[in-house]
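Note on ligand handling. Small-molecule inputs were canonicalized before submission; formal charges were left as drawn, and no protonation-state enumeration was performed. Where a ligand contained multiple stereocentres, the stereochemistry in the source SMILES was retained. For 2-acetamido-2-deoxy-beta-D-glucopyranose, this procedure yielded the string shown in the input block below.
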Amino acid sequence: MKLQETAKLMMLSSTATAEETDGLGIKTKVGFVVGFALGFVFMQAMVFLGGEADFRQLFTDPSSAAAKQVNPLGQAFEASLRNIQDAANGTTKNTSRVATTDALAKPQEEQPAMTADSLFQLPFYIYDNELDWSVNATVTRGTNQAELLNQSGFLGYKHSDDYWLLLHAKQHPMRTMDPSKADLFFVPTLLSAWNAHGYEGDASKNKFCAHNGICNQKLLERAEQVLQESKWYRRSQGRDHIVVDTHWRKHWNKLPYSRLLNCNSISFENLVPTDGNPKGHQIPTGGRVHIPTLYVGRQCQDETNKTHDFAMIATFKPGNKNFLDRAHICQWLEQNNHQQNYTVSRCGGGDMCPALGQARFGFHARGDTWGSNRLMDTFLSGAIPIMTSPEQRKILPDFLPWEDVSYMVDLSNSTSFDTFIQSILQKTPQELAEKRANISRHRDIFQTKSKGRQFDLYMHKFAQMLELY
Ligand SMILES: *[C@@H]1O[C@H](CO)[C@@H](O)[C@H](O)[C@H]1NC(C)=O
Ligand SMILES: *[C@@H]1O[C@H](CO)[C@@H](O)[C@H](O)[C@H]1NC(C)=O
Ligand SMILES: *[C@@H]1O[C@H](CO)[C@@H](O)[C@H](O)[C@H]1NC(C)=O
Ligand SMILES: *[C@@H]1O[C@H](CO)[C@@H](O)[C@H](O)[C@H]1NC(C)=O
Ligand SMILES: *[C@@H]1O[C@H](CO)[C@@H](O)[C@H](O)[C@H]1NC(C)=O
Ligand SMILES: *[C@@H]1O[C@H](CO)[C@@H](O)[C@H](O)[C@H]1NC(C)=O
Ligand SMILES: *[C@@H]1O[C@H](CO)[C@@H](O)[C@H](O)[C@H]1NC(C)=O
Ligand SMILES: *[C@@H]1O[C@H](CO)[C@@H](O)[C@H](O)[C@H]1NC(C)=O
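Structure output:
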């Protein structure tokens, strides 16, 4: 059996749980354990424990941070969340829904496709058959009626980059409609949406469907079949194919064989398909390239009105050592051992906005995993990120020099923390202005929804790493 046929997932840490600050307020208790079942061809790389998350929670609480956050879609998004809640409550849907969601799908910031400044310069093809899961895409949660994906609230979710990158792919100037002219193939399956909704464990209740009502596992099976039948896929076994697969949850790895897995991917942090080799970051013989997700961030309004120095809005899991950094940051800021002169708009849970927008600096400390949308939220809200570990940079794509757009605090102990705080308060206005200018220069990379630059950079990077230039 070929290694590539046994592609399986593996994460390089042994246990983890879902990031609890899921963009739309997922409070899932689902955990996953990763094992390296060496020697087992069809190893189950990830075993899902616990009950499945209540998917209504995903989109319901309008008082949650997510609902209050203003993103580029602004009020439309809030209104959409309200509508979603109406739907969850079983009341009649607001008739302004269609107008609202039109606005959702067409953010005001949206720009026409870039032209001259596009970095990626190779013709690429987007499958326009059943692999395009954005066609008639619907989600069903629990006993709710099916809703269109683009009206479901998913588009504000931190793992909605599958949707947004596809949107920008379709507008990219290097797109060709002739597959015989393409150097790269973009597979328009929406695996993040699929993983967010297409619950295998509760397939009767939670569904992700596309086309003529093909749902969940069947959708995946159909995609495998379409790829198998594609002469372009068969030609390369996926070597020149790219798929977006950024959700942390990987239900599809239950398939014994996955052509989707044998594509290059935009992946979740360091979670990439492997053949089970615990040292392998990539399928050893496949030579596939996996570039980590940037997460879809959200923005607080009035991000230029800085009234405070520091903010960190996050969840806390007392007793979980992965969350210790977060606890220390708030504790040590509060203690202010050296009587330094600073203010904190918010350190703790609750609403991200306006606190993050009011702060000059935003801490980005690990939770369940090294990454999260918090870093992007911080950039978009006009705050300078303070990262807490070099590991956080390793799970990001190297599109930009992260040290030029952030600071790094040493959280070894309260002394090292206080020293850092002192040093940052003493930064000259010139240095801070330069840091902010560095961030501004790259800001469009984080505007996943409205700007095509992120897609362009990913494709350029794939082309480089696959040595196509
Ligand atoms: C419907 O939603 C719109 C936008 O959120 C709101 O302005 C309007 O008042 C709502 N109408 C009803 C009847 O709830
Ligand atoms: C939906 O129901 C919840 C719980 O009963 C309630 O708190 C909330 O206000 C309702 N939302 C709407 C929009 O009616
Ligand atoms: C939303 O999705 C549906 C079904 O795929 C599509 O027909 C519709 O055009 C989409 N709406 C927008 C505003 O993109
Ligand atoms: C999308 O849904 C419409 C209405 O249900 C249906 O007529 C059409 O065939 C579907 N499109 C595809 C590509 O399945
Ligand atoms: C800036 O924020 C402060 C505190 O939230 C508020 O009082 C003030 O009006 C704001 N200024 C501007 C120009 O928005
Ligand atoms: C603290 O900083 C504020 C604003 O930067 C300033 O107005 C105030 O005088 C400072 N207080 C002390 C005790 O240095
Ligand atoms: C800003 O970016 C430049 C590289 O473009 C870098 O040399 C410089 O150190 C950065 N400035 C700050 C304050 O990080
Ligand atoms: C705090 O951490 C720093 C840097 O890791 C270390 O050099 C120092 O000895 C530590 N101080 C205390 C009091 O533990």
